[in-house]
């Protein structure tokens, strides 16, 4: 039980920030492009309680990947629905990648200034921060890369619908009602997660965290086991 609360204390803030910022970015970009649905429903807020999906949040802590309640977007209200769909959908992964980069820069900055996490007094404060930054790098890269899968309702699927010619886009859009079922089958009953997604995440961690990538891997291994 003590181990559970230790893990929760490290994972909670980065996970909530990753999921909340992802959803708010969709609504913010849609709002700028003509659809004010999210604003009218009070979803343009960083209050995580407005975005939490209980099961999706639990999945973050259980298997390392999860989701929030999608921010409502009425694509028909966008000034150019087919084109603007690309920007609205792409805002989520872009936000996650930005958070991952900022977390990596913060981690590098801490180590550059302290040469580590310092002695006992400094270590007491900085070690939890480093661990949260490490998990932030992991969870944001995972959410960003996972959402780029070109299958609606994932963001990559919506981007593909916006980019493809009309006939192919219409065909792909018809998959959306069954998209989550297909995604769950792919995650739990195929090796796509271990063979495709995680290797890309690991490579991205190495690029962002550099000499400190081992810390990110060590922290995420502890949290996910």
TrEMBL record:
Q: What domain of life is recorded for the organism?
A: Bacteria
What positions does the domain Peptidase M50 occupy?
Answer: 16-188
Q: Which UniProt keywords apply?
A: Cell membrane, Hydrolase, Membrane, Metal-binding, Metalloprotease, Protease, Transmembrane, Transmembrane helix, Zinc
| Cofactors, names only | Zn(2+)
Q: Where are the transmembrane segments?
A: 54-73, 85-113, 133-154, 175-193, 205-224
GO biological process, any: proteolysis
Which InterPro entries does the record associate with it? Metallopeptidase_M50B, Peptidase_M50, Rip2-like
- Chief subcellular location equals membrane
Where would you find this protein in the cell? Cell membrane
GO MF term set = peptidase activity
The record gives the membrane topology as: Multi-pass membrane protein
Q: Which family would the database say this protein is a member of? A: Belongs to the peptidase M50B family.
Name by which UniProt lists this protein: Protease
Species name: Geotalea uraniireducens
């Amino acid at each position: 039980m003590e181990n559970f609360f230790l893990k929760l204390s490290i994972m909670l803030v980065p996970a909530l920030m990753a999921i909340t910022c992802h959803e708010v970015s969709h609504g913010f970009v849609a709002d700028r492009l003509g659809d004010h649905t999210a604003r009218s429903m009070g979803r343009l807020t960083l209050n995580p309680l407005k975005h939490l999906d209980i099961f999706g949040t639990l999945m973050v802590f259980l298997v390392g990947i999860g989701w929030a309640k999608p921010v409502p977007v009425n694509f028909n209200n966008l000034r150019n629905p087919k084109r603007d769909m690309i920007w609205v959908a792409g805002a989520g992964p872009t936000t996650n990648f930005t958070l991952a980069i900022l977390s990596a820069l913060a981690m590098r900055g801490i180590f550059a200034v302290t040469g580590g996490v310092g002695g006992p007094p400094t270590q007491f404060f900085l070690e939890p921060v480093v661990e949260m930054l490490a998990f932030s790098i992991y969870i944001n890269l995972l959410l960003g890369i996972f959402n780029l899968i070109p299958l609606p309702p994932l963001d990559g699927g919506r981007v593909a619908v916006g980019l493809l010619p009309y006939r192919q886009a219409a065909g792909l859009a018809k998959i959306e009602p069954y998209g989550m079922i297909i995604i769950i089958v792919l995650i739990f009953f195929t090796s796509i997660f271990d063979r495709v997604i995680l290797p890309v995440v690991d490579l991205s961690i190495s690029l962002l965290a550099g000499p400190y990538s081992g810390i990110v891997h060590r922290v995420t291994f502890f949290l996910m086991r």
